[in-house]
Amino acid sequence: MKTLRVIMVTLLAFLLVTPVANATPRYHRYVALGDSYTSGPGILWPRLDRLACYTSTNNYPALLADNLGLRSYTDGSCGGADTTNMLTPQTPPLPFGTHPAQFSFLRPDTDLVTIGIGGNDFGVFGQLTSKCPELRPTDPGGSPCRSFHVVDGVDTMKQKVAMTGDRVRAVLAGVHERSPSAKVLLVGYPRIAPPRGNCPSVLPIADGDLRWLDDVEQALNSALAKAAADDGRTTFVDMYPASLGHDACAGRAAWIQGKDNNLFTAIQYHPFKSGMVGVANQISKVLGVRGGAHERAVPRSVDKAVVGDASTVTLLTRSGHGR
After folding, report:
1. pLDDT in tens, 175-203
2. What value does the mean pLDDT take over residues 54-82?
3. For the domain that residue 157 is a member of, what is the CATH number?
4. pLDDT tens for residues 22-46?
5. Looking at per-residue confidence, does 299 or 321 come out higher?
6. Among this protein's residues, is 270 annotated catalytic?
7. How far apart are CA 294 and CA 305, in angstroms?
8. Which positions ≥6 away from 310 have C-beta within 8 Å?
């Protein structure tokens, strides 16, 4: 009897501290909003109903929906989106139509919203991933990209990131207005550059600029965290510390693609599926549910009618994506 009592006490303690996947989901109407770090371009398989955005069926919204035990969810994310696309329709570069304003996916009865936005505002992400590799040959051991973006002693990239925080705070207010009862999570960006060292064959960025790029990303995540704190009703999911050891230079452990485009794994400077698994599981941890390995080809939460195949990837390639 004493042994049985010990077993029961141990089991009860385990259940109290261990996150578990809900047999009956606590959330029923999940909506994901965001940019390409949410939509997952290049991760198999593309969604047929989101070709213009090149949205993946294995992005973190789909994987999170599986973790939550949901059979469906709404993905309003789109590659290239910035905060203005919450209210304004987006015309992505691929010739597959216009993506609706992302707020249009929200409903009064939406009970869970994740938002991953801010990196594209003021052209920050695109400028860093294009200009920094371009300038590396001029001073491989220095910081030519940082020097280019510092004007009259002002770091213009960090200045833009600070302004982005104000925009994101307005986005959060817009979400609460449209879905007043929803649990709202603002998802930060996983680290791209390593904390030390370099990998020019993967990230062709000058050594000093790698440290600066990392500083800019930290500043962006700090701006997002502040926006969530100032909002007071949003939880910030900090992916920067959670992605330590998974930067683009981490080899097989990398969550982020480097300079190469691969339309069967990830486009350049964007998350692999492993990165999406990492984000989904970190969000799940914040929500108190168990994560998963997510080895299925297509998550259970994805409608099979919208799942593309190799011919879809070929179509996207011919349309100019990834070139």
Report:
1. 999 999 999 999 999 999 999 999 999 99
2. 97
3. 3.40.50.1110
4. 556 799 999 999 999 999 999 999 9
5. 299
6. yes
7. 20
8. none
Structure tokens at 196: 């030390």
- Structural domain span for residue 66: 2-318
Contact 42, 58 (CB under 8 A): no
Catalytic residue among 149, 270, 294, 321: 270
Q: What pLDDT is stored for residue 96 in this prediction?
A: 85
User: Does any domain span residue 323?
Assistant: no
Name the residue among 41, 48, 108, 109 with its Cα closest to residue 78: 41
Residue 310 CA neighbour count, 13 Å, CB half: 0
Catalytic residue flag (residue 36): yes
The pTM for the full model equals 0.91
In a domain, 37, yes or no: yes
The C-alpha angle 272, 277, 278, rounded to 5 degrees, equals: 95
Q: Please count the CA atoms within 13 angstroms of the CA of 245 that sit on its side-chain side.
A: 3
Rg of the Cα trace of the chain?
20
Q: Which residues of 68-91 are buried (b: 16+ CB within 10 A; e: fewer)?
A: bbbeebbbbbbbbbbbebbeeebe
pLDDT tens sequence across 256-295: 999 999 889 999 999 999 999 999 999 999 999 999 999 9
Written as six digits, the tokens of 256 are 């982020």
